[in-house]
């Protein structure tokens, strides 16, 4: 009885609080959602979250239909752009999810792109990202352009969408952004330096935006505007080339892998439109993130070559090559005199090969001396050429891996931290922002302590099945393919499952904190979310037992 009375008291407390607020109706509950980058790992995880939001029912439809702002990066743009296409086409969301899952299951983007490069004729030569763009266009989007999305912007739930890239001319974000606020315009594609004209935006293909958003540095070349776009072959394309010249666009994750900044800009536009600068225009922001909080540590490596090669250096190799060439030349003379034809042919061939190598080594050494002689290493040229190949290989390998760690680890971690602070330390978003991360539920000990300390209810303690699945999902590499081993191990299905049950957990924890802590910065519109608690608990309890429940495997 005491427990029931406490529940009733809490319920009345909610009712009294919400009655005191003078906000709009509950149906106006507005959600901002971001999909981080991370290749197929991100796309599958975000699909799971999207599916779950679609299956949470509210009075006027589904929770997914309350997502008004959507910002996507790289692999997250696979899910985001395909979802926007589904909304414009009136496609069933479950069918859209199945279609994207099948696309990732059967399409190895990198392999297919390289296979098609031989048959690809382009004025700027071969480009793997350009051929990949064509695969997106044929197999995922079926030629869909932003024109179709813009025609339906007044009819679909998402009023602000941005697929984000990075301008490799100036380092600014390059947004493929459409919004219903600027009805006198069709969208905003570009940045302060490069902006695609309004009349061209409807002709840009979803596949082109996805290629720009997902071509990560080192893996692909930049997408070149306008050359790599279908618009290049039109009169508008020629005018754009004259006006802007060529510029490269690459992965948006280089400067904001969580897609938070475009969401904040959209929220600011919404506040400006409403005229209320004091209250956040979004009732809830969900940052869907597959970036692991712990970076892969740098580990130095000592390169070991076969014993015969281990002591070689460029100077010794040139010297050995000269001696071998000389000996072969001397050996050819008596062989010719004794008319030993077969041996003469063998020695002549070896002499030719040795002479060519000797010349190439000498050219290479002289070129290295000339190049290094014009740098700060000019006094070290002799020592560098005397370095053993194993030592040279060790130095080059460790420098390359440390550079990769710096760019993909250190820089990305710092940028992520700054973006999270920008959102979560902003008072406008107090009690209105949550992060749905792929790695959180693998840390079982943390939740055990929280439950034991009374900071978390028992029903939110993740089961061992969920912890195991999260551990597997968080270790998946952010590639654009699933290997045969991935398919056997149900990697794609595990990622989808993680996105599904993680958002259940995050929303249940959010509701629990609202009920037990404070009501600062929330309104009566949040009652709609509180009313979802029974549904969320039901799904959570089912996934606690079997995280992969009901997920279709390979057809």
How many strands appear in the DSSP assignment?
Answer: 11
Q: Count of helical segments?
A: 22
Shape category: elongated
| Radius of gyration using CA atoms only | 30 Å
Mean pLDDT: 84
Catalogue the unreliable spans.
1-26
3D structure, described in words:
The protein is of the alpha/beta class and 555 residues long. Helices cover 54% and strands 10% of the residues. It contains 22 helices and 11 strands. Strands 1, 4, 5, 6, 7, 8, 9, 10 and 11 form a 9-stranded mixed beta sheet that branches. A two-stranded antiparallel sheet has the order 2-3. A hairpin with an 8-residue loop joins strand 6 and strand 7. Helix 13 (314-337) runs antiparallel to helix 14. The protein is elongated, with a radius of gyration of 30 Å. It starts with a helix and ends in a 10-residue tail after the last helix. Residues 1-26 have low confidence and may be disordered.
